[in-house]
Amino acid sequence: MSTTGIIFSNLHDMSIADLTRKRTMASVPFGCRYRLIDFALSNMVNAGISDINVITHNNYRSLMDHLGSGKDWDLARRTGGLKVLPPFITAYSNDTNALYTSRLEALKSIQGVVAGITADTVVLSDCDAICNIDLRKLIEYHNAEDADVTYAVKTIPLTAATSEHYNIISSDENGTITDITAHKKGVEGKFDVSINIWVFKRQYLQSSLLDAAAHGYTSFTHDIIGRSLNRKTFKVYRYDGFYANITSMADYYAINMSLLNPANREALFKVKERPIYTKVRNSAPTKYVDGAQVKNSLVADGCVIEGTVENSILFRGVRVGKNAVVKNAILFQDTQILSGAFVNCVIADKNVVIRNDVMLSGHPTMPLYIEKSKMI
Predict the structure, then answer these.
(1) Domain boundary among 238, 269, 300
(2) 277 — pLDDT class (breaks 50, 70, 90)
(3) Of 5, 137, 276, 357, which has the maximum CB count within 10 A?
(4) Cβ-based neighbours of 92, under 8 Å, separated by 6 or more
């Protein structure tokens, strides 16, 4: 059976508004050398999906620069391949074709593309579902159960503070969904939550979009799934690997820092049959000058380290000057920490310069963010 993929690139931009002011959620840097969309793309490619659509919203220049023709994911093809779909707004724009705010509205904005899909199944994924999931097994399970929709879920502990960020999925002993509780506050305990990856029957997805357009529906969870729980077959597929959900800058910081744990890195990046691909850049190896000290850190190619780096993540081209100290920090591409500077619990965007002897410190629950190209 054939499968088409659809990735949503902008839906959660406001979760980390500082980082998405000039880029999409999909193109936010992550884990030393990746972008968030690399996980959704790689999961699909590793499952043999070669026809993938990326729905954009705004600020997608950096995303297009990262994706290019798709060749780094083996998606530069004559048929199928990678397609970036900008928002559809007519010359006579009005409320009916304004920029979308939900997945259903995003799909309605490319309804012509969805109507032209001929594959048997369609995999939908948010761009920030940070996991390495075997989508091939998920699709096989979906087809074996003859489901209309299959939700990928993971059992995680929720607190009163975190429950509002998840859709809680209830199911019976056969894996059939019986209820969906969306973003409910104050829930505590272990629950199956959606990891924002779904498999649809192509015909059901197409008919649902037509129904949504006819009735003015805006939410898949409430208007499509919720109204059909007793009439359609909705299943759950349990995933037990590494999964992270970014809901705030503190989450973004903590999830990146979690990669300093070798077990998390292996669970995400070292699954032999499912590598995570990204845009290839030919950079010189990192240079460690005499006297440099680096402990428990991830350092990309092209960096120059003269000072001290501890418990930090450095992207390509970062420079740490003599006697400078970098601790518990995330430094994006081409950031410079000049001689004598000290930074702790800092997220520095691209091309930031921290001048000589400057001292900056945030806190793990509230990391200090420095915007792109800023000099301090």
Answers:
(1) 269
(2) very high
(3) 5
(4) none
Q: Is 77 a domain residue? A: yes
Which has the closest alpha carbon to 19: 118, 10, 73? 10
Same domain membership, residue 134 and residue 12 = yes
**Alpha helix (H) residue ranges in the chain:** 37-46, 61-67, 103-109, 111-115, 135-144, 202-215, 249-258, 262-269
Q: What is the CATH number of the domain that holds 302?
A: 2.160.10.10
- Which residues span the domain enclosing 25? 3-269
CATH of the domain at 50: 3.90.550.10
CA dihedral 68, 70, 73, 74 (to 10 degrees): -140
Q: Does residue 171 fall inside a structural domain?
A: yes
The CA-based dihedral angle spanning residues 322, 328, 331, 335, taken in that order and rounded to the nearest 10 degrees: -20
| Residue 243, burial from CB neighbour count under 10 angstroms (0-12, 13-18, 19+) | buried
Task: Please answer whether residues 171 and 192 qualify as being in contact, where contact means their C-beta atoms are separated by less than 8 angstroms.
Answer: yes
pLDDT tens, 296-336? 999 999 999 999 999 999 999 999 999 999 999 999 999 99
Residues 171 and 209 in one domain: yes
Number of domains within the chain: 2
Does residue 353 share a domain with residue 322?
yes
How far apart are alpha carbons 302 and 319 in whole angstroms? 9
Residues 51 and 162 placed together within one structural domain of the fold: yes
* Final residue before a domain boundary, out of 217, 234, 269: 269
Task: Express each pLDDT in 15-63 by its tens digit.
Answer: 898 999 989 999 999 999 999 999 999 999 999 999 999 999 888 889 9
Place of tokens 């890195």: 265
Question: How many CB atoms neighbour CB 93 within 10 A?
Answer: 11
- pLDDT tens by residue, 147-177: 999 999 999 999 888 888 899 999 999 999 9
Per residue in 99-112, pLDDT (tens digit) is: 667 888 889 888 88
